[in-house]
């Protein structure tokens, strides 16, 4: 984070060791443990202004949580562009490679409340606030590049359908229920996004390893006024990984905060998450050259047709100081743009431009939410807006209108050449109508493209995702209608899901007849760097201190996170030893496993730990003693990704793949 933004956040009240307690009006407090009463056992007095202020503030500590994206976690960082992009845009932060721009990023789930688990199957929000010298630019996107609906007027319907059902307020945090899948079956435009959500993309392993997408088509506008259509991408430097469904379900109970804890601890250790910013750019004259409408938010621009140009890097390097002040009060808005960036006529984006201001006013108590430090731009703000709830600025002077002569017409407007924002002058004409463009009405081709592009394990996992979600529905009609929709995309998917949930396979094969693929859609396209992964070392019996230290040194040298797990903790030094037990550790919390045995029979907990790691296709290393004792277990020592070795460095080679799907 740059100094400008840090100075703003530092303006909040700090507490030092020698600060005297005061009321919010600055009066020093001489006692803070007893209310003012008549005598020691008498009634409390209404005149106790300190108690009234303290309890009043407590009563109002919680603000309304977001209707969607309530479960979120954020961090600060910085962005730097690799090259001058002035050919495409006049945006200062995208044209000056020497400039570092502070950012704040908030990751979130969509459906669940603020207290729901991190690891549910859901779309993840990926919202980035750029504090540029020209104002704030909010890139408010998701980890899936498409959305369920094409027009914002249907957003309340989508969210009402996916939220807990109103008659019983269940289920919390997921879409596996009747109303969502009824919406899916009756609104075929949701098909493409549903296929993404039911794939491995719907259960990411952590926030560090998700892609980010702006979803919508925006415009870049250069200083000469030329416009380009653009889609924004975040490509994770640490690779792209997901859970398997069984693993994600277990984690709901083992660690409800798994994703936020991973992000927080990574930054605290200095293993900073990084993403590269990518742009897909289409010339205006190419707008109608594709077999999809580039303004349709339920469609991707296939990367094999429109390559992603990598233009910069974002690094998250500082955790928030206070989650409420920063993460919860952060007010994102797709309408927060800077000169050089403009909107397209995407009907979903157009509706979001209206909705987000309304939401922030409701949540944050009035129109002055942009004066909260986390929302404040780094450049100065001058205008004639006054008063309203939670006004933090003290405005001086006689004049609060434009134009004026009493103050020499200050604050004055700026021309485009002086940095004033000017909308792209797109020619628009037509009748006022309520009608969807015919070019938006292909609902299935890109869903088929996505399925065609998956590896066999990824396809199988997508079948499992649909089977679980639809299997949780109570209505046979809803299940059947949903399968009928899948039958219009892919026959094999429809048949397998129908058989799994006990409904009829549609008689007629209506699937899209296409073998088209996009090589960039499979998660297998990403290399997975070794640093940042975790290994659990199970200590079945005694292990000498030097062996333990040699293991630890190997992990540190390869930037692997690790924990030694035993029946009881054992402190070798203040900050080193067997820190976890079989009660506190679990294989779903780690990316790999090493089993150390030294002559004794394996504890039942060790065998169970190894078998679940094996089931979830993770790298597994056992020493020779442990291998002898695992001969009769449920795992095969000759299976891919299982290594018999006494050398702790074997784990490095074991991470040739993050998962061994051929096990």
UniProtKB/TrEMBL annotation:
Cofactors demanded by this protein: heme
Q: Which residues form a coiled coil?
A: none
Q: What class of enzyme is it?
A: oxidoreductase
Please give the InterPro entries that the UniProt record associates with this protein: Catalase (IPR018028), Catalase_AS (IPR024708), Catalase_clade2 (IPR024712), Catalase_clade2_helical (IPR043156), Catalase_core (IPR011614), Catalase_haem_BS (IPR002226), Catalase_immune_responsive (IPR010582), Catalase_large_C (IPR041399)
- EC numbers for this chain: 1.11.1.6
Which SUPFAM superfamilies does UniProt cross-reference here?
Heme-dependent catalase-like (SSF56634)
This entry's Gene Ontology molecular function terms read: catalase activity
| Residue span, Catalase core domain | 22-410
Residue ranges annotated as compositionally biased, kind Polar residues, are: 9-27
Disordered: annotated segments: 1-30
Q: Per UniProt, what is one Pfam family of this protein?
A: Catalase_C
The alphabetized UniProt keywords are: Heme, Hydrogen peroxide, Iron, Metal-binding, Oxidoreductase, Peroxidase
Q: Which Gene3D superfamilies match?
A: 1.20.1370.20, 3.40.50.880, Catalase core domain
What is this enzyme's catalytic activity, as reactions?
A: 2 H2O2 = O2 + 2 H2O
Q: Does the keyword Heme apply?
A: yes
Q: Does the keyword Transmembrane helix apply?
A: no
Q: What does this protein do?
A: Decomposes hydrogen peroxide into water and oxygen; serves to protect cells from the toxic effects of hydrogen peroxide.
Return the similarity comment.
Belongs to the catalase family. HPII subfamily.
Protein name as catalogued = Catalase
């Amino acid at each position: 984070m740059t100094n400008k933004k840090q100075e703003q956040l530092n303006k909040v009240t700090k507490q030092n060791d020698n600060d005297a307690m005061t009321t919010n009006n600055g009066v020093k407090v001489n006692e803070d443990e007893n209310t003012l009463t008549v005598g020691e056992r008498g009634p409390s007095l209404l005149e106790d202004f300190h108690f009234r202020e303290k309890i009043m503030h407590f009563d109002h500590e919680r603000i309304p949580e977001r209707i969607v994206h309530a479960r979120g976690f954020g961090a600060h960082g910085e962005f730097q562009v690799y090259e001058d992009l002035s050919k495409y845009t006049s945006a200062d932060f995208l044209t000056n490679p020497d400039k570092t721009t502070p950012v704040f990023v908030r990751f979130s789930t969509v459906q669940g409340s603020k207290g729901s688990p991190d690891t549910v199957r859901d779309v993840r929000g990926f919202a980035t606030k750029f504090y540029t010298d020209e104002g704030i630019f909010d890139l408010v996107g998701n980890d899936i590049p498409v959305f369920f609906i094409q027009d914002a007027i249907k957003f309340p319907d989508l969210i009402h359908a996916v939220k807990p059902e109103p008659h019983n307020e269940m289920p919390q945090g997921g879409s596996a229920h009747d109303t969502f899948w009824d919406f899916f079956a009756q609104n075929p435009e949701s098909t493409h996004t549903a296929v993404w959500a039911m794939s491995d993309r719907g259960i990411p392993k952590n926030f560090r390893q998700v892609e980010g997408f702006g979803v919508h088509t925006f415009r870049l506008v250069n200083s000469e006024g030329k416009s380009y259509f653009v889609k924004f991408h975040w490509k994770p430097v640490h690779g792209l990984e997901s859970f398997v469904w069984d693993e994600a379900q277990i984690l709901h109970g083992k660690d409800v905060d798994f994703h936020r804890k991973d992000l927080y601890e990574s930054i605290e250790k200095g293993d900073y998450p990084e993403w590269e910013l990518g742009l897909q750019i289409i010339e205006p004259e190419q707008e109608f050259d594709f077999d999809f409408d580039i303004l349709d938010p339920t469609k991707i621009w296939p990367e094999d047709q429109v390559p992603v140009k990598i233009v910069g890097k974002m690094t998250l390097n500082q955790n928030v100081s206070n989650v409420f002040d920063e993460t919860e009060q952060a007010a994102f808005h797709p309408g927060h743009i800077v000169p050089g960036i403009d909107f397209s006529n995407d009907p979903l984006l157009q509706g979001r431009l209206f909705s987000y201001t309304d939401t922030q006013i409701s949540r944050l108590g009035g129109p002055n939410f942009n004066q909260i430090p986390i929302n404040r731009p780094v450049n100065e703000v001058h205008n004639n807006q006054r008063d309203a709830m939670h006004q933090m600025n003290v405005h001086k002077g006689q004049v609060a209108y434009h134009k004026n002569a009493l103050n020499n017409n200050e604050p004055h407007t700026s021309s485009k050449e002086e940095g004033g924002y000017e909308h792209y002058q797109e020619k628009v004409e037509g009748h006022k109508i309520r009608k969807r463009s015919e070019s938006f009405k292909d609902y299935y081709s890109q869903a088929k493209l996505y399925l065609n592009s998956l590896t066999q394990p990824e396809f199988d996992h997508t079948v499992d995702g649909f089977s679980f979600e639809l299997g949780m529905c109570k209505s046979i009609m809803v299940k059947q209608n949903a399968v009928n929709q899948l039958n219009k995309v892919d026959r094999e998917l429809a048949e397998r899901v129908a058989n799994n949930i006990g409904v009829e396979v549609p008689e007629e094969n209506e699937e899209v007849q296409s073998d088209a693929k996009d090589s960039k859609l499979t998660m297998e396209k990403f290399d997975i760097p070794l640093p940042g992964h975790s290994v659990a070392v199970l200590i079945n019996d005694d292990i000498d201190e030097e062996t333990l230290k040699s293991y630890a040194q190997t992990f540190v040298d390869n930037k692997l996170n690790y924990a030694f797990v035993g029946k009881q903790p054992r402190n070798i030094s203040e900050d080193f030893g067997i820190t976890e037990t079989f009660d506190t550790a679990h294989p779903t919390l780690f990316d790999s496993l090493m089993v150390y045995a030294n002559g004794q029979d394996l504890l039942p907990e060790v065998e169970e730990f190894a078998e679940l790691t094996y089931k979830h296709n993770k790298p597994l290393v056992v020493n020779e003693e442990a291998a002898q004792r695992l001969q009769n277990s449920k795992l095969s020592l000759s299976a891919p990704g299982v290594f018999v070795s006494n050398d702790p460095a074997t784990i490095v080679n074991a991470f040739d793949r993050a998962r061994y799907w051929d096990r």
